[in-house]
Specification:
The complex is a heterodimer of chains A (348) and B (373). With 348 residues, chain A is α+β, with helices and mostly antiparallel strands. Chain A is 31% helix and 24% strand. Chain A contains ten helices and 14 strands. Chain B has 373 residues and is α/β, with parallel strands linked by helices. Chain B folds into two domains: 308 residues, 3-Layer(aba) Sandwich (Rossmann fold); 50 residues, no CATH class. Helix content of chain B is 43%, strand content 19%. Chain B contains 17 helices and eleven strands. In chain B, strand 8, helix 13 and strand 9 form a beta-alpha-beta unit. In chain B, helix 8 packs parallel to helix 9. The longest helix of chain B is centred in the middle third of the chain and has 17 residues. Chain B is globular. The model of chain B has no long low-confidence stretch (mean pLDDT 91). The chains are: A alpha+beta (348), B alpha/beta (373). At the A-B interface, helix 1, helix 9 and strand 14 of A face helix 1, helix 2, helix 3, helix 4 and helix 7 of B.
């Protein structure tokens, strides 16, 4: 069912019940957005992602640029420097060549801008009706600095939670373009490659925290104060935070008034009956960092154009492990749950 | 439009103001000299209460119970089964409001019907279904026309427009319900505990306040027509507490920025033209006389039940589900033994766990942490 691809509980269940048992190995078991492997002393990050976005073209990007940004970001969340991508195209019979050219040009431009190369690829054509215009799969590899261990199971009570900017832009930009939702909006997708921002953060966090033992000093050679990075794509901020809370077995408390949401996005969400915490992003990251390093890392994020609006949005706690709580604007507390499937538009 | 969206947000912010909300809550706590049981009718209001934790601010003397005003929750099981049956026909496109898709029927839901190849589409307005019908004359397009007085005018408009255009491949599966007869049924029940009502602001925007004035008089309970933001709800609770403490039972309009005494005459007119009042079954509440709307005889050609010859069926709810008592305000969702374990949004036993306006879903989404403790 469609809900199994929503990034919510149904997706997680599918992964747990079907895929994990079939492929079990230590790299996969970490359930990060990428796998990190040691190959001949080199630490290799590897990831793949498929893109089925509809419409193919949207304000702020298209399926081609998104296919580059999405895969680069999955690598960047391990602190990796992305190097090479593959690109596979599944075309529905009858799809226009001029549109394909536009998508491929944009994919190529996005790769050039990000300083990665598309070094291999594949094309398949399926019968009309067997696909929906165009699907793209990209895979990517990158290099992870020695000693850097970013993972969703590393959050510890007391850590701070940083968010790199406004949430919900991508999801609302896409929704506004969809057939049947006729509201004009100036909202652009935030689709962007985040590895530059991550590099800035790693540099800033280098050696910030106190390290008593030799082992800690080694860990601190790069990014020692950053525990985990996540890009809140499908399922939005809420799903990403819930995954971290669950995998690290910690509680997470966020503060509603600190979460940056554009007024246009809030307004569109009000009209459509959606909660911006669940709306997709394609150019944002969440960082879980040691409390003492939060401020300098935040400052470093703000120096980068993609992190200008970064904020500290919450704290990792010992309370109710696996749960995300939010203090509302009224000072009361509520759960921020992981959705079962996609958000359903409300009736009235 | 972008400018308008920005204005909307500014406007909403006034009604989410932290200081105003806390001042109102303090006054409510100060004035309530004994326990008062208040019911908000509308599921949208239930969600605001849970989402902002308003009940936490009110103190021990105010108990809020949640009413039957979730359109998805009270749509009879039979209607959902019929919709699923229609969706499985190869030449039918079934168009529905989004919330309906995950509501469990007897054996399945519309999401599963869609996954099995049924052409099920989500729309924000019934006029969207008309567009699909115009664009695809080869398909029979059925709109699942459910809801309260809030959706009735737009749903009526769709039928009117279809007839006006002579569109032959469009019909509606209608399950429209009316709020005042349900309140009458609740108040007439010997089990009733409700002493004051937060009346539904959007329903009154369409229908006006007269019906609620009559209810206040007949049952000697105060009613406050109320909006959907935290400050709206707190103001309404304060107005109700003031009335109850003074022994008064009047109708007051807190939501005057939207509700006029006589409602929206144009919307009521189109409802009148297309629909007639009829007896209606409510999921969880049973048959309530004159509590629903049916298509008038002149619109028989647009009635999916008639066109497709759908048989009248009677089906049973899962025995464990207490949604009937939840919808009457007799039980809280957390009183249910299945809550959060055998009944979750992924595997709901009853509709209130599905809809974004359902009380069980509101407790599950926003309040599970207090139920656990």
């Amino acid at each position: 069912m469609l809900g199994h691809g929503s990034g919510g509980k149904l997706s997680a269940e599918l992964v747990r019940s079907i895929f994990l048992p079939a492929f079990q190995n230590p790299a996969l078991a970490k359930l990060n957005d990428q796998a990190v492997m040691n190959v001949n002393g080199v630490r290799l990050a590897f990831t793949t992602d498929s893109f089925v976005v509809k419409p193919l073209f949207f304000p702020g990007g298209n399926i081609g640029s998104l296919a580059v940004h999405g895969t680069i970001n999955d690598l960047a969340m391990a602190g990796a420097r992305p190097l090479f991508l593959s690109a596979a195209f599944i075309l529905e019979e009858g799809f226009s060549l001029s549109e394909l050219r536009r998508v491929v040009d944009s994919l190529s431009q996005a790769a050039t801008d990000a300083n990665v190369q598309v070094v291999t690829g594949d094309t398949k054509v399926v019968e009309k009706g067997s696909g929906d215009q165009l699907f793209i799969n990209t895979a990517g590899i990158g290099l992870v600095p020695q000693g850097l261990e970013l993972s969703a199971d590393q959050a510890r009570p007391g850590d701070k939670i940083l968010l790199s900017g406004f949430i919900g832009d991508h999801g609302i930009a896409i929704l506004a373009q969809r057939e049947g939702l006729e509201f004009e909006s100036a909202i652009q997708s935030d689709s962007a490659a985040l590895h530059g921002l991550v590099a800035e953060m790693l540099e800033a966090s280098d050696g910030i925290s106190p390290h008593d033992t030799q082992e800690q000093r080694v860990a601190a050679t790069l990014g020692g104060a950053i525990r985990c990075l996540r890009d809140p794509t499908r399922g939005g901020l809420s799903s990403a935070l819930n995954e971290i809370a669950e995998q690290s077995k910690v509680g997470i408390q966020i503060e509603e008034p600190t979460i940056p949401i554009r007024e246009e996005v809030r307004g569109a969400c009000e009209m459509l009956g959606l909660d911006p915490l669940y709306v997709a992003n394609e150019g944002k990251l969440i960082a879980i960092v040691e409390a003492g390093a939060a401020e300098p890392i935040l400052q470093a994020m703000r120096r980068h154009p993609l992190g200008r609006d970064s904020r500290l949005i919450g704290t990792v706690t010992e309370r109710s492990p696996g749960t995300v709580l939010m203090r509302t604007a009224l000072g009361t507390t509520r759960i921020v749950d992981m959705l079962a499937g996609d958000q359903l538009p409300r009736i009235c | 439009m972008t400018g308008a969206i920005r204005d909307l947000v500014k406007y909403i912010d006034e009604y989410r103001d932290h200081r105003i909300a806390h001042a109102l809550a303090a006054e409510i706590r100060g004035r309530a000299s004994r326990k008062w049981v208040l019911m908000e009718i509308c599921g949208g209001q239930t969600h605001t209460i849970m989402r902002y934790g308003l009940d936490e601010l009110l103190g021990d003397n105010i108990e809020l119970v949640h009413g039957p005003g979730c359109p998805v929750c009270v749509t009879p099981l039979e209607t959902i089964d019929k919709a699923i049956e229609l969706a499985s026909l190869s030449d039918v496109t079934l168009v529905s409001y989004g919330d309906m898709l995950r509501v469990p029927g007897s054996h399945s839901d519309l999401f599963q019907a869609k996954a099995k190849g049924g052409d099920v589409r989500v729309a924000y307005t019934p006029l969207e279904a008309l567009k699909i019908a115009r664009a695809h004359p080869e398909r029979r397009v059925v709109f699942l026309a459910i809801g309260f007085e809030t959706t009735a005018p737009a749903n009526a408009m769709a039928a009117w427009q279809a007839r006006h255009e002579g569109l032959r491949n469009f019909s509606m599966l209608v399950s429209q319900v009316l709020v005042p007869p349900a309140i009458r049924a609740l108040m007439s029940s010997p089990a009733n505990r409700v002493q004051g009502f937060i009346a539904p602001g959007h329903v009154c925007t369409v229908m006006g306040c007269d019906e609620y004035e009559a209810l206040a008089r007949d049952f000697h309970v105060p009613f406050v027509v109320t909006g959907f933001e935290p400050v709206d709800l707190l103001q309404a609770v304060l107005l109700l507490v003031k009335q109850l403490e003074a022994g008064s039972a009047q109708l007051e309009n807190q939501y005057a920025r939207s509700v006029q005494a006589h409602g929206n005459p144009v919307a009521r007119e189109i409802m009148q033209q297309v629909f007639a009042v009829a007896d209606q079954k409510w999921r969880g509440l049973g048959m309530i006389p004159s509590s629903g709307l049916r298509l008038r005889d002149e619109y028989a050609d647009y009635d999916a039940v008639k066109i497709f010859g759908l048989a009248d069926i009677t089906v049973e709810e899962p025995a464990e589900c207490v949604s009937a008592q939840v919808l009457q305000g007799l039980k809280k969702p957390t009183d249910c033994s299945a809550f959060g374990s055998r009944c979750t949004p992924e595997n709901p036993l009853g509709a209130p766990m599905v809809s974004s306006e359902g009380a069980c879903a509101a407790y599950y989404r926003y309040r599970r942490h207090t139920a656990d403790n």
